[in-house]
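Look over this today:
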Amino acid sequence: MSNLENKEKNLNKLIEKLSNISISYTHSTSEAEKLKKERDIFLQEKNDLENKQNLLMREHDYLKNKLRSLQEEVNRKNETEERFREEIDELNQETEELVQDIEKWQT
């Protein structure tokens, strides 16, 4: 991002310099028009970059939220799995106790 910020600062400085150049300065009208077109190109590039940055920021937010949602889902599934394991362990324990009771009754 610092690279983009540096480019933006440099671009803003250049735009400001181009805006400050007056036609009365020793430039011909064609030179002034050329500078004006160049300024307009830089402004358009700046706007394009800002739009791309905004799009990337929106995508970043979307993906961050999606990741958070998926992580929450994984956590819920892990909790459910853990409860299921605990219930299986309890059932196994009860089954062992029942088997022991049956063996006692048979002897």
In short: The first helix runs from residue 2 to 20. The chain is about 90% helix and 0% strand. Residues 79 and 96 are 26 Å apart (CA to CA). The mean pLDDT is 86.
